[in-house]
Design goal:
heterodimer; A: alpha+beta; ATP Synthase, domain 1; 8 strands; elongated; B: 286 residues; alpha/beta; Pyruvate Kinase, Chain: A, domain 1; 2 domains; 62% helix; 13% strand
Amino acid sequence: MADNFLLKIITPDRVFFEEEASMVEFNTTEGEIGVYKNHVPMTVIIKPGILTITQDGGVREAALHAGFVEILQDKVTILAEIIEWPEEIDAERAEAARARAEERLKSRTPETDVARAETALQRAIARIQLLK
Amino acid sequence: MASMRDIKRRKGSIQSTQQITKAMKLVSTVKLQRAKGRAEKSKSYFECMYETVTSMLAKTGNLNHRYLKSGSSPKKALILITSNRGLAGGYNSNVIKLVTQGELKKEELSIYAIGGKGRDTLRRYGYEIRADYSEFIEEPLYIDAMNICKDVLAAFESGEIGEIYLAYTSFRNTVSHDPKLLKLLPVELSEEKPEEEKTSQALMSFEPEDDQALDMIIPKYITSLIFGAMVESAASENGARMQAMDSATSNAEEMIEDLTLMYNRARQGSITQELTEIIAGANAIS
């Protein structure tokens, strides 16, 4: 396919992914979006969710938890604070984290950091969904 | 001239010191390789982060965002990155000097220390140590930087501190590292290359809108700076230690050579003396 753009995903400790892709989808603060080549230049903030990369060879998925994305016409750069391939996720830990976050949100006290618990929950859900 | 036994003892002691410095040099060489690899791997992230943030700030212009102006409090937070262990040449004292002899006033600073050496020295000088994250420097993790960032930003937002600085040692290459003092907050717009940005990023839009985007990106930017500083400092520490231990080892080598010469002379001297005495004794008898 001719309509490929360069997708670069970098984390603080490694270059996670740097290949051509035809489409990438992820979850932002404004909702889920999909990006093709020649998208309007934009910077968006990421919300925990599943990142889907469509390439000529097929589709790859990863759990993307935090960071932001710089979209240019022929290049998309994802500055990810936390991102994982499915094989790097520990299913039991994710399940436990979800239970913990739900518990915290249910038994809400004034000291509960609601925002933090919610992000933790979103993260855990993203991980679990990806594994399914 | 010192006696043979004294010289021998001295030589032995230097030799065992040399063994220690040699071992430390080897250890820090290995650690340096690892830390250097980490610093290099993380570099592209910071460069990208820096570019994005500067282009964002250039675009938003003179926005009256809370992260872009200093708080009302005269207090300044300083994140000081040093090592937990000594024997690294001037590594720790160079950063500390930057703080104590810089323009920042002692009364206004509250120190967030990463690294035991800096913490102890500044405490001795009478600085206010607000928090201590010394255990993080051994193996810098991004999550640690996030925690530190959260703490200082909380203090900034509550109005306890008005500005945030970061003192660390930047790693240029294995043999040269410079102590650096960086202003983290308020974020300062760099003036460089505005033209280039205009062409490539003029159409960049943000989602959500500017204010919120800054709210979210600037903490990430600061976290990445702190993390980058931690990684670079760790590499510099090991580089400095490697150098210090290398010169200590070669100094020991030199001293051992001198002492060996002295020892041989003393030995020769005592043999000659003994012979003279025997001959003199024999002459006296006959």
